[in-house]
Amino acid sequence: MKPARGYSRTALILHWFVAVSTFFLFISSWWMLGLPLASAEFRFREIPFQLHKNLGMTLVAAIIVMIYVRFKHRPQPELSAILPPRMSKLATVDHVVLYALIFACCVSGYLSSSYSGWGTTLWWLVDLPNWGHENEELNILYSDIHLWTCWLLLAVVAVHISGVVYHAFRNDGVVRRMLHL
Amino acid sequence: MDTAEAPGWASRLGVIAILLGVLLAAWHANEWMKLGIVGTPPYSLATMPEADCEQDELEEEGVSLEECRQLAYVVHDISISAPGWFKNFHIAVSVAGTALALLSVFAGIALVDYRHWAATAAVSVFGALAILDMVSFTAVVNTGPLIRQMYLWSILLWFFIHLAMTVGAIVGCEEQQAVQRRAGT
């Protein structure tokens, strides 16, 4: 049986924006941390770090809009209608954890930067407020949270992708909810 | 509506194309940024200032003093090993690669959605990516050893992946045509 249309076009566009941006943030962060530490002479880190922070904050906004769109236009058919209850629950948990980790990863990165003394200018246009004065302990605390939530995010993304490949190989119509034109 | 229930091969190849397309788009976009930033450092190795490696920064970054000093040299790896044409060429390849990778995501979605044109589009896009890998590989072979060790293996890996995907899409096209012929007789 051919499944009904799944997620809305807005949800689709946001999903793929979040997917490409997330991988870009991982790959670019591994590269940019190999650049010389910032100083008056060494300014290589400026653009990639600003871009990293900008994209991260944009991802937070995208996730919020995505959750809103997801609940406003519920994709049909519901997963519970096409999957056994155990798998349906697993998929729900995977999505909730994924959203929570993207949110935690991005916000902790912003807070770490905020307490580091380095400012954040959103897309080189708007100066975002710092949450407090420079504080090395809080900077390190949020930096650690950023690091570990991001590693955890990568692990959950791997689970998410495994699920996608599983359903694609079964060809059971689940992936078509997110993969339609 | 020109979609039908996707056969197994289209669903599997489509999802693999999407997954790899997302990863490749991120990789090429990073290359684009990388070359823009360290492709031409503002000073040569001879005039390079001393790296600023304060103890608290080292602890925060989790790097040793030796690593911190070495980081200042690493940004020169591309510029000292690249011929004059490489920076602009590699940026152009990365821009084209990002666009083609995003197109392969689109082609993958079309395969899963099983549009009648999806298999032909997939052959074109995956084939174009394989050709781009070949061009890029040939260019990198003609640079210095620092760039070759940085890029050759990953480009070769992507080339074989795109080659396999192109052949898979060609076989899918043939299967689709056979089904259409059987339906017509």
The whole-angstrom Rg of chain B is 22 Å
SS class of chain B: mainly alpha
What is the domain total for the residues of chain A?
A: 1
Q: Would you tell me the overall average pLDDT of chain A?
A: 87
How much strand content do the residues of chain B show? under 5%
Report Rg of chain A.
19 Å
Shape of chain A: elongated
* Large-scale geometry of chain B: elongated
CATH domain class of chain A: Mainly Alpha
Largest sheet of chain A: 2 strands, antiparallel
Assembly type of the shown chains?
heterodimer
Number of helices of chain B: 7
Distance between the termini of chain B: 24 Å
Topology of this protein?
The complex is a heterodimer of chains A (181) and B (185).
Chain A: H1 9-32, H2 46-72, H3 79-82, H4 85-116, E1 120-122, E2 126-128, H5 136-170
Antiparallel strand pairs in A: 1-2
Helix pairs in contact in A: 1-2, 2-4, 4-5
Chain B: H1 8-38, H2 55-61, H3 65-74, H4 77-81, H5 86-113, H6 118-141, H7 145-184
Please provide a written account of the structure.
The complex is a heterodimer of chains A (181) and B (185). Chain A is mainly alpha-helical. Chain A is 67% helix and 3% strand. Chain A has a single domain (9-177), classed as Transmembrane di-heme cytochromes, Chain C (Fumarate Reductase Cytochrome B subunit). Chain A has helices spanning 9-32, 46-72, 79-82, 85-116, 136-170, and strands spanning 120-122, 126-128. Chain A has a two-stranded antiparallel ribbon. In chain A, helix 2 runs antiparallel to helix 4 and helix 4 (85-116) runs antiparallel to helix 5. Chain A is elongated, with a radius of gyration of 19 Å. Chain B is mainly alpha-helical. Chain B has helices at 8-38, 55-61, 65-74, 77-81, 86-113, 118-141, 145-184. Chain B contains seven helices and no strands. The longest helix of chain B has 40 residues, at 145-184. Chain B is elongated, with a radius of gyration of 22 Å. Chain B has one domain. Classes of the chains: A mainly alpha (181), B mainly alpha (185). Chain A binds chain B through residues 2, 16, 19-20, 23-24, 26-28, 31, 33-42, 44, 47-48, 51, 136, 139-140, 143, 161, 164-165, 168-169, 171, 175-176, 179-181, and chain B through 3-8, 11-12, 14-16, 18-19, 22-23, 25-27, 29-30, 33-34, 37-38, 41, 49, 51-53, 56-57, 60-61, 63, 68, 71-72, 74-75, 102, 105, 108-110, 112-113, 115.
